[in-house]
Amino acid sequence: MKHHASDAHTLAAAHALGALAPDESEAFARHMQECEACRQEAAGFEATAARLAAAASQTPPAALKPRVMAAVDEVRQLPPHVPAAAPAATRVGALRRRAVPLALAATVAAALFGGGAMWQLRHGQELEQRARQAEQRLDAVSSILAAPDARTVHGRAANGALTTVVASDRQNQAVFTARNLPAPAAGKTYQLWLAHGGTMHPAGLVHGDGTVLVDGDPAGATAIGLTLEPAAGSPRPTTAPLLLLALPT
């Protein structure tokens, strides 16, 4: 399923991340009252931002706050920069191309550098590694969400979880988002599968609500599945699928 022709259907990510102008945000909020697909998609993008931010967030040391507050008086403030207004006809198109990666970047940046985490980045190799990993996930996820050929499909798993898959042929990648996913039993985890020619190929593990990159090659896949497997994953499904979602071609 390609993006809907109407501009309103393409703004779910930007709305969820607060990247719309006030009038556009209000208009999209009204649109969501009548569009279940956009409500689900916006919720999925909110989960994406939260998961990426959580991957890099850290509690700052107690001594950092007074140091920051003491340095504030010495920092000169720059005057506000007011960019020239874009023509109305191009504003929404430009927003679709830029809002998703920029808003996601802002979310992760806030988690990385807000509240003193920048100081910890300079003093902890472990945090630096986590930050790099979060940035890599950000780059991959945002490029898929913002791809001009991105297509979206929604589904509901047998256990009640709401799912969304966004795929891009150009990127040859896909992301999977789950909401209301029940916690698996001890020693179990959720596993994704890509169906190629009637064969299910492992496509990554899902540990809870949020968004993950789909492992493997989604090109040519006819469906994506979700099963409950042993914690380390399985080379082939061992349980009945909780979800078998047909992918658009």
Question: In a few lines, what is going on in this structure?
Answer:
By secondary structure, the chain is an alpha+beta fold.
Account of the 3D structure:
With 249 residues, this protein is an alpha+beta fold. It has 2 domains: 7-145, no CATH class; 151-246, no CATH class. The protein contains 7 helices and 8 strands, in the order H-H-H-H-H-H-H-E-E-E-E-E-E-E-E. The chain has helices spanning 12-16, 22-32, 36-56, 64-72, 88-113, 117-123, 125-145, and strands spanning 151-156, 162-168, 173-179, 188-196, 199-206, 210-213, 223-230, 243-246. The strands form 2 sheets. It has a 4-stranded antiparallel β-sheet with strand order 1-2-3-6, with helices on one face. Helix 3 (36-56) runs parallel beside helix 5, helix 5 runs antiparallel to helix 7 and helix 6 (117-123) crosses helix 7. 32% of the residues are buried. The model is unreliable at 1-6, 94-103 and 107-115 (pLDDT under 50).
Distance between the termini: 7 Å
Strand order of the largest sheet: 1-2-3-6
Q: Helical percent range? A: 40-55%
Q: Which secondary-structure class do the elements indicate?
A: alpha+beta
Portion of residues in beta strands equals 15-25%
Give the overall shape.
Answer: globular
Main β sheet profile? 4 strands, antiparallel
Rg (CA only): 20 Å
What is the mean predicted local confidence, pLDDT?
Answer: 74
Spans of 5+ residues with little confidence (pLDDT < 50)? 1-6, 94-103, 107-115
Count of distinct strands: 8
The DSSP helix count reads 7
Domain module tally: 2
The topology string of helices and strands comes to HHHHHHHEEEEEEEE
